[in-house]
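To close the section, here is one more complete example, presented without commentary so you can practise reading it yourself. The ligand is adenosine monophosphate.
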Amino acid sequence: MNAIFLGPPGAGKGTHASRAAASLGVPYIGTGDMLRGAIAGGTRVGLEAKAYIDAGDLVPDGIVIGIARERLGMPDCAGGFILDGFPRTIEQAWALAGFGRIDRVISVELDDEALIERIAGRRVCGGCGGIHNVETLGGRDECPVCSTPLARRGDDEPDVVRHRLEAYHRETAPLRDYYMGLGVIKSVRSDRPVPEVSADILAALAE
Ligand code: AMP
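Output:
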């Protein structure tokens, strides 16, 4: 199964993409995670990408296509993969068509108002990479899984979030039509409990 998870920031695509990858036993590939890793590692890609991410802008296609192509060429992707956050522009989708077969696209959907509220409460773990929300943390500021202190992502600050949503509506939302045309897209609303949404996604992937 080669699948893409498409959706606005805060819709839960990272959570659901990693749950689906674990269930199916295929690698989870998040370009946002890869770029943050490159920034933390001080690589050339990281240095190039940092200003764009901090501002809530999309990183230029050439950089992101390069890291996605390299990652999908690794042997662990031969038996399938779940892509989270790539492609995000039509140019990226066209490029991907040249180096990755796509069986299914899951469009994870949520209204803008709910997205903004979710992102305001989102906390990430610097240790295991887990994603949590203040709503379910009950006042804890440490990761419930590995006890590392949780933090808000720099690009989850409200003015940056607004910018990211604009970029999503302008650049990424049109990809729904592109994949609709290829007949591979399924939409799943994520304003329900995580296990329920995950079950619907697994069913959509199995169709
Ligand atoms: P994410 O973790 O998927 O929300 O991505 C965080 C940030 O990384 C985005 O706001 C973009 O600045 C950048 N990014 C991740 N994936 C892509 C992509 N496919 N194209 C351009 N920028 C990306």
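Once you have examined the tokens, check your reading against these statements. The domain at 2-26+79-111+172-206 is CATH 3.40.50.300 (Rossmann fold). Residues 9, 31-32, 35, 52-53, 56-59, 64, 85-88, 92, 155, 164 surround adenosine monophosphate (CB under 6 Å).
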